[in-house]
Amino acid sequence: MNPEEKALLERSLKLGEENNQILRKMQRAARWAVLWGFIKAAIVIVPLVVGYIYLQPFLDQALKNYNGFRELLNV
User: Fold this and answer.
1) Can you say how many angstroms the Cα of residue 2 is from the centroid of all Cα atoms in its chain?
2) Which terminal residue of the chain, N or C, has fewer Cβ atoms less than 10 Å from its own Cβ?
3) Per residue in 27-61, pLDDT tens?
4) What's 35's DSSP letter?
5) Nearest CA to 68 among 60, 58, 56?
6) CA gap 31, 51 in Å, rounded
7) Cα distance between residue 2 and residue 9, in whole Å
8) Under 8 Å CB-to-CB from 1, ≥6 apart: which residues?
9) Taking the model in full, what pTM does it have?
10) What pLDDT, on the 0 to 100 scale, is given for residue 61?
11) SS (H, E, C) the chain
């Protein structure tokens, strides 16, 4: 192997290692993005579900009162 080919191989090796590091960083960033996406979705969805569960009796009572008031006006 002549010195020119050896230099080209060393340069290719160096570039390959740099590319590997960049790709690993990109993969790590993509994983964090997915994790934060799930966390943000949970921050939105969980309070909605919990609020619905806890407010359901109050909403039912309000609907009952509204229907009673509407029936009173129709008579």
Assistant:
1) 53
2) C
3) 999 999 999 999 999 999 999 999 999 999 999 99
4) H
5) 60
6) 30
7) 11
8) 9
9) 0.60
10) 93
11) CCHHHHHHHHHHHHHHHHHHHHHHHHHHHHHHHHHHHHHHHHHHHHHHHHHHHHHHHHHHHHHHHHHHHHHHHHC
